[in-house]
Design goal:
UDP-galactose 4-epimerase, domain 1, 10 helices, Rossmann fold, alpha/beta
Length: about 325
């Protein structure tokens, strides 16, 4: 198949390109030529701005277009309209952040979606990210009726992850010693290895799958404790998890999600964020690699970057972690 990737040289785009090539598809990458320009030297690239002139994309016909970097409906609409007569299928990578209410688990694709308060805004923030993605989805579905695949991933993890969120845990556990473990041991968590997401997307276009799908994992119920022990088993058995309650963490100004990835306090009413229903995607071929493989590969890739702690975008500072654990011991724990 002939496949056009919008993006393609950052995180999930890299894995999608690699999966397409592995399966023998004819791939073209379209982006501004600013990120990882040395990647994929043998693959055809078209340099351009998706907000500008897209006439060069109309010179060919694509079996599928995969949009990995659409955040603003005006921009997504521009590319979708340009390709509406030049592509059979439009794949849009969205997010589970489109949902309106995360207070309960088991969110399905038919649950209510977020509404943008200021319909004139185009600024992507923590507040507008989800609602803007909702509008992007609507544009794609309107322009490609019955020819659109909307994929809603949860937290995407693995090699090339620029956010440093999931990556914090393998790195920290590998260092060993006393590791601050947040909240409830049996809290459910979800995430998707970018390579499993890529495999699902490529398989879906091969089978001409359309519709909307929550794509996160794993298949089985996974707790935070299970995950941390998998990190320990994979990377460093000389690790001792010190479980710390929500109230103590809040009292010591320890942030959730970004500072302590995959952790959301009970009182935030957001358990649904890490308990999304993925049955629809499972029924259409979603599969997962072993958890230990994701942990090991993410750690190996992260080590190759040799980032200083100050350069990381997420994760609890090592000195702050020690201070919080010291305060815990002073309390008599």
């Amino acid at each position: 198949m002939k496949v056009l990737i919008i993006g393609g040289t950052k995180f999930i785009g890299i894995h999608i390109v690699e999966e397409l090539v592995k399966r023998g598809h004819d791939v073209t990458i379209f982006n501004r030529g600013k990120t990882n320009v040395d990647f994929f030297p043998t693959i055809k690239k078209i340099v351009g701005d998706r907000e500008g002139d897209l006439s060069m994309l109309k010179e060919d016909h694509w079996d599928a277009v995969i949009d990995t970097c659409g955040y603003v409906p005006r921009v997504v609409s521009h590319s979708a309209r340009a390709l509406s007569s030049h592509a059979d299928l439009y794949v849009f990578v969205s997010t589970i952040s489109v949902y309106q209410d995360f207070s309960a688990e088991n969110i399905t694709e038919t649950d209510d979606l977020s509404v943008l308060k200021d319909t004139n805004t185009q600024e992507v923030t923590g507040e507008t990210y989800g609602p803007l993605k909702v509008l992007c989805e609507k544009e794609v579905s309107k322009i490609f009726p019955n020819r659109a695949l909307i994929v809603r991933p949860g937290l995407i993890v693995g090699p090339y992850d620029p956010t440093d969120r999931f990556t914090y845990w393998p790195k920290r556990v590998a260092l060993g010693g006393e590791v601050l473990a947040p909240g409830l041991k049996d809290a459910q968590i979800q995430f998707i290895d970018a390579r499993d997401l890529a495999s699902y997307i490529v398989s879906a276009i091969e089978t001409k799958t359309v519709g909307t799908y929550n794509v996160t994992g794993p298949k089985e119920h996974l707790t935070l404790e299970d995950f941390l022990h998998a990190c320990k088993k994979t990377l460093n058995n000389e690790t001792d998890f010190i479980w710390v309650e929500d109230e103590f963490l809040e009292g010591n100004d320890v942030g959730f999600w970004t500072e302590l990835p995959l952790y959301i306090p009970q009182n935030k009413g957001m358990s649904g964020m890490l308990g999304v229903n993925i049955n629809k995607a499972l029924s259409t071929g979603l599969t997962f690699r072993p958890l230990e493989e994701t942990i090991r590969d993410t750690f190996t890739w992260d080590e190759s970057r040799q980032l200083a702690e100050s350069e990381r975008k997420a994760g609890l500072n090592f000195e702050k972690e020690k201070a919080v654990l010291a305060n815990l011991k002073l309390r008599g724990r």
